[in-house]
Amino acid sequence: MGGVSVGGGVGGIGRLDCDVLVIGGGIVGLSTAHALAGLAPGTRVVVLEKEDGPAQHQTGRNSGVIHSGIYYKPGSLKARFAVRGAAEMVKFCAEHGIPHEVTGKLIVATERDELPRLHALVQRGRENGIPVRELGPTQISEYEPEVRGLAAIHVGTTGIVDYGRVARQLAESSGAEIVYGGAVDLISRRASGVAVRTSDGLVVRARVLVNCAGLQCDRIARLAGDDPGMRILPFRGEYYDLARPDLVRGLVYPVPDPAFPFLGVHLTRGIGGGVHVGPNAVPALAREGYGWGVVRPRDLADELAWPGSWRVAARHWRYGAGEVRRSLSKAAFVEAVRRLLPVVRGEDLVPAAAGVRAQAVLRDGTLVDDFLIREGERAVHVLNAPSPAATASLPIGREIAGRALKSLRSA
User: Is 117 helix (H, G, I), strand (E, B) or coil?
Assistant: First the structure.
């Protein structure tokens, strides 16, 4: 079912019993529920989502890109799951009538010092089994007449889709009981599994807990009595819409800096025909802080108390200052866009909804660069699943479901 309200019991308090409880109704949590139905039919699955519907945070606030997997270290979870997940996502959308398109994309070098990094991407793409075509300046204009660069690569397997719609389809076809509107505020471990209470008084008893809580995943792990060994550092990504979408035919990206898990300001034609420009990556003042005016003292205190946050700031302050400058100055943001699209003007960029990336940071200040899944007693915690998690959600869901079922069998 696509979502339920559970009541009854003493004083309106409801109770549910299940085999596997998934916390988090984003695309990873819903894909896990969907995978459980396929791998072990008859498994009783409940999904708890604190918002009033699925995909309200990272899933519903991204560029909608089906990533090829070209950026990721060969053999990493990101590389394996993105390459496999891109093909599976296209197939899933075709089967369920979800609008999508395999557009391909350009990654464009605009400065000479980017050329070695562009060549390294070509090699990485080939190692990951991704077809890549190298382009000179004239060939760039064949794909994108208004884009300028010294060299580029064309990645043919990249596409676009509405991930919010994918999440809703996963919810519908999972067969799970999905409960919206209550945040988890207590988790009790017991010999038979876990008991979880939500802010609206619902109690769910489960044999195995799966934590797919995204921006809140480290807190859920701690509520469950497990030390995640990391903290979520939220980075806000701010977007504009292009008022002249005819300037861009498809997807255009800069060459990323390998020192950071961000791809830089890019141009993305969406499934509806509009063009998204962005995002930057600035520290958010709240885990769900979609603007500078959203400040939550508890979230800030958590960030400042974690030693890794200070080490990230000390190590990457120069990069961060540039991102903040582009956030506070539209002219600076336009300047970054003009590196790829010289004809763009300030009036061409119209503010659009922002997103927040849940970035795991270790105690030593390392920005976790791969998907991070850890297991506790009768629990599976997904502790780092930023981009390309939406692309890779189907194989990620199977991986998490497999671990949950293993825990279920050993219970």
Answer: helix
